[in-house]
Design brief:
This protein is α/β, with parallel strands linked by helices and 280 residues long. It contains 8 helices and 8 strands. Bound molecules: iron/sulfur cluster (SF4) (2 copies). The site of one iron/sulfur cluster has 14 residues, from helix 5, helix 6 and helix 7.
Length: 280
């Protein structure tokens, strides 16, 4: 019998570029060169393969970096909504500090029924943030704000995922880290870029940057891989979804599963970056 591939959510990552400079960014946007942005052709190919491989998906997402910096965001959303009958809701994550462009605004309005904007409020660039909220309010766009500043931060603030170094954990320790992680307990924060589908942003970024050993079709699925058939990719994805852990968890503090309040930090502390590349 065919095994069903069911995912709660998956996010396309058009780009790792960001206008902010957060010290503990899970995608290391301020600390690493951004790599290649996703092209529209790549987005089309990615979406087609995702919806060939995955039987049920609740939430299709676009995240980053800061997606509103991405010049081809509107055509990318257009491509996503060609599959509107295959997902329940569409979520776009933003820091709310980049002005809404007209082309993006128009396409959001066209798909209001399924669209939710997730906005992290870091208490930064408040004038731009307030203007952003005013515009979406005026147009009845569904949104949620996650408060990430002041004393009452969402989830008590952020955790530090640490440097990309191996902790040499045993399989039993890796399993414990994996199963206690918030990214896993919510069904996975699955992300895709460069044809790679990963469990979480940390794994995607660390593998693309070469810090985490690349074990394709074991720790992540390479949907562009020409050496494996669709059936083989499906089997590998099914196994990864039901895995006990993946190697990336050895290159992570694993603190996202912590109950220790001393391991929570104020979100979005802005820090001078080693690499900071944004669109002109
Ligand atoms: S807003 Fe901060 S956490 Fe989000 S992508 Fe940009 S640098 Fe990273
Ligand atoms: S523990 Fe594993 S799943 Fe959790 S954030 Fe780290 S790499 Fe991702």
């Amino acid at each position: 019998m065919k095994k069903e591939i069911i995912l709660k959510r998956i996010a396309l990552i058009p780009s790792f570029r960001c206008n902010l400079n957060c010290r503990l960014c899970i995608s290391s946007s301020p600390n690493l060169p951004p790599g290649n942005d996703m092209t529209i052709e790549e987005a089309k190919k990615t979406l087609k393969l995702i919806f060939t491989l995955i039987d049920k998906l609740e939430l299709l997402q676009i995240s980053g970096g800061e997606p509103f910096l991405f010049k081809e965001l509107a055509p990318m959303i257009f491509e996503c909504f060609k599959y509107a009958d295959r997902f329940e809701k569409f979520m776009l994550f933003t820091n709310g500090t980049v002005p809404l462009r007209d082309d993006v605004f128009e396409i959001i309005k066209q798909h209001k029924d399924k669209f939710i904007l997730f906005i992290s409020n870091y208490g930064l660039h408040t004038e731009r943030f307030n203007a952003f909220i005013k515009t979406i309010n005026k147009n009845s766009i569904t949104y949620r704000i996650m408060n990430y500043h002041g004393d009452d931060q969402y989830f008590g603030g952020w955790v530090d995922f640490g440097e990309y170094v191996s902790y040499n954990r045993t399989p039993a320790m890796l399993s414990k880290v994996f199963h206690s992680c918030g990214q896993v307990q919510c069904g996975g924060c699955w992300q895709v870029q460069n044809g790679q589908i990963h469990w979480c942003p940390r794994s995607l970024r660390g593998t693309l940057a070469g810090f985490i050993p690349s074990r394709k079709n074991i720790d992540y699925i390479d949907i562009f891989d020409t050496e494996t058939t669709l059936d083989e990719k499906r089997t590998a994805l099914y196994e990864l979804i039901h895995a006990d852990y993946f190697l990336g968890c050895d290159y992570c503090t694993g603190d996202m599963g912590t109950n220790d309040p001393t391991k929570r930090y104020p979100a979005a502390e802005q820090k001078v970056a080693r690499h900071r590349v944004i669109y002109e």
